[in-house]
Amino acid sequence: MRNVKGIISVECMESGEKTLKSGIVLPDDKNKFQDHSIGKVIAIGKTKYVAGVEVPMDIKEGNIVCFTKAHPLVGKFKLKNKTYYSMPEERIHCYWSNLKEYEGEI
């Protein structure tokens, strides 16, 4: 899969409220917070535009990310019975370099 500039595709790993060791709570209650999920970045557009200038993306393929699913700029699609989300980098709240680093937080 290849993405256009500024777009990230994420394979959904899990949804639901999680509390990290650092004390950050990733909520699941749609009435209080937007719907968040955890996923693995499977494809990125290599660059994005900031104030008309092309710059590299901060997020890389393989990163684990926390993102908002319930947003007009986030698209959902299914491929081979897996759920994926496509979004601009700005919809990512935080990220971990890899799964091992993420699992160390929980």
Overall description:
The structure is a single chain. The protein has 106 residues and is mainly β. Helix content is 5%, strand content 49%. The model has no long low-confidence stretch (mean pLDDT 80).
Write the layout of secondary structure elements.
Elements: E1 7-15, E2 18-19, E3 25-26, E4 36-44, E5 47-50, E6 53-56, E7 64-68, E8 75-79, E9 82-88, E10 92-96, H1 99-103
What's the gist of this structure?
The chain has 106 residues and is mainly beta. The protein has one helix and ten strands, in the order E-E-E-E-E-E-E-E-E-E-H.
Write out key terms for the chains shown.
six-stranded antiparallel β-sheet; 1 helix; two-stranded antiparallel sheet; 106 residues; 10 Kd Chaperonin, Protein Cpn10, Chain O; 10 strands
